[in-house]
Amino acid sequence: DQQVKQNSPSLSVQEGRISILNCDYTNSMFDYFLWYKKYPAEGPTFLISISSIKDKNEDGRFTVFLNKSAKHLSLHIVPSQPGDSAVYFCAASHGNAGNMLTFGGGTRLMVKP
Amino acid sequence: DTGVSQDPRHKITKRGQNVTFRCDPISEHNRLYWYRQTLGQGPEFLTYFQNEAQLEKSRLLSDRFSAERPKGSFSTLEIQRTEQGDSAMYLCASSLEFGRGGLTYPGELFFGEGSRLTVL
């Protein structure tokens, strides 16, 4: 049973426009969420996180929104740049079992110049 | 370079052989994780260590898999009698846990570049 799902395997966006990547989760115990970016032949690198006490966290061009009632989070990239082209994973954990992160399947973002 | 390093980056082996991967975490991190990633999937948790203690193992980790972290520093992941289904990227990550509200969270995981295993 996939507890973290990214239903869009790929997304194509024009440079300068907004990229919106979505993630849904089923485990209501999750209360800490992260986004990772992965380039080919590299390990995932941390982008941004949000805890359940917030509904928004912003870091430069990256903003993560959390809708706890819908069990949904999204990552907004504004403006999108060609260097943002990568696979993006959302991940979740909860403090009662803070041993690991559970990852979604990833969304491949392509930003066209 | 003070990041997480993994060795070897790529290993090709024949079915039935044993392989071992090594991970050197960020030195001040107390947690070390092993994940596996197959094509088109997100990383799947295998096991984690807090210092030298292996505290949790996924059911994905069959008895052919063994992980160690002697002295709480580097870690090794050994796969015995490899099968073609073991072909994957094996990712190591380390983190510094944090606490909030009496609970403990894994923190931000820093990943290595991975060790790709191909079993022929």
Write the topology of this structure.
The complex is a heterodimer of chains A (113) and B (120).
Chain A: E1 4-5, E2 10-14, E3 19-25, E4 32-38, E5 45-51, E6 56-59, E7 62-67, E8 72-77, E9 86-93, E10 102-103, E11 107-112
Chain B: E1 5-7, E2 10-13, E3 19-24, E4 31-37, E5 44-50, E6 53-57, E7 65-68, E8 75-79, E9 88-95, E10 98-100, E11 103-105, E12 110-111, E13 115-119
Parallel strand pairs in B: 2-13
Antiparallel strand pairs in B: 1-3, 3-8, 4-5, 4-9, 5-6, 7-8, 9-12, 9-13, 10-11
Describe this structure in words.
The complex is a heterodimer of chains A (113) and B (120). Chain A has strands spanning 4-5, 10-14, 19-25, 32-38, 45-51, 56-59, 62-67, 72-77, 86-93, 102-103, 107-112. Chain A has 113 residues and is mostly beta strands. In chain A, strands 2, 4, 5, 9, 10 and 11 form a six-stranded mixed beta sheet that branches. A five-stranded antiparallel beta sheet of chain A has the order 1-3-8-7-6, with no helix packed on it. In chain A, a hairpin with an 8-residue loop joins strand 9 and strand 10 (102-103). The relative contact order of chain A is 0.34. The model of chain A has no long low-confidence stretch (mean pLDDT 93). Chain B is built from no helices and 13 strands. Chain B starts with a strand and ends with a strand. With 120 residues, chain B is an all-beta fold. In chain B, strands 2, 4, 5, 6, 9, 12 and 13 form a seven-stranded mixed beta sheet that branches. The model of chain B has no long low-confidence stretch (mean pLDDT 90). Helices cover 0% and strands 52% of the residues of chain B. Chains A and B meet through strand 4, strand 5, strand 9 and strand 10 of A and strand 5, strand 11 and strand 12 of B.
